[in-house]
Write a structure and sequence with these properties.
- By secondary structure, this protein is mainly alpha-helical.
- The protein is about 55% helix and about 10% strand.
- It has eight helices and three strands.
- It has helices spanning about 5-20, 20-25, 65-75, 105-120, 125-135, 135-150, 155-160, 165-195, and strands at about 35, 45-50, 55-60.
- The radius of gyration is 21 Å and the shape is globular.
């Protein structure tokens, strides 16, 4: 794959697995990364994110996110040992220079990728193509929140990771997941009832 495609793949993976905002991804540097031993003896990666209102928050990095970053750094000719790089090294950089990629450029790259994906899907699934075409860079952050809630991440943990001031904002994802479960069960058993045709016994 081309350097541009390698970068795109990393951006998609990292945004999806961290829930970081566009501006936060643009500003992120090696100095934000942390690798430390936890109380249970395990070593874990995280990233300190400077978010809205100049507030820092710590976001845990799952292993696939770290592996994606290591692979992207190797492609850029940097040290795969992440903390061996200069603290000012941007996590997302221009192709021709080790300089940070601005928010507008990140937005254009991701939007262009969504558009190309929609075009590729259109012939097989027009509805899916329309949904993808409507996607924004913030869509990845929402996907992170929705999938985390669906996989049982506690609401307070999700709130801290997303940097929400109010728990009510985070609860949107939890309520949406609850509604999705109820709808799925209603549909499953409604179909079964109709198939049974109102029979009297099991």
């Amino acid at each position: 794959p081309s350097p541009a495609l390698v970068r795109l793949r990393f951006m998609l993976d990292f945004a999806y697995m961290t829930g970081m905002r566009l501006a936060e991804m643009s500003a992120a540097v090696v100095g934000w990364l942390r690798h430390e031993q936890l109380d249970d003896g395990e070593w874990a990666w995280s990233i300190m994110v400077l978010g809205k209102r100049n507030k820092w928050r710590e976001v845990p990095l799952p292993d696939p996110a770290v592996e994606a970053l290591e692979g992207y750094f190797r492609e850029r000719g940097l040290q795969a040992d992440l903390l061996a790089n200069d603290a000012a090294t941007p996590l997302i950089a221009k192709l021709e220079a080790n300089e940070p990629l601005g928010t507008a450029r990140i937005h254009d790259i991701l939007s262009g990728a969504f558009d190309r994906c929609a075009q590729a899907v259109y012939a097989k699934d027009k509805r899916a193509a329309d949904r993808i075409r409507e996607a924004s860079t913030h869509w990845l952050r929402h996907t992170y929140g929705s999938h985390a809630a669906a996989r049982g991440v506690p609401q307070d943990v999700l709130q801290a990771n997303l940097g929400h001031e109010s728990l009510a904002t985070t609860s949107i994802y939890v309520r949406a997941e609850k509604a999705r479960k109820h709808k799925a069960m209603q549909e499953a058993f409604a179909r079964r009832s109709s198939q049974r045709g109102g029979g009297s016994g099991a």
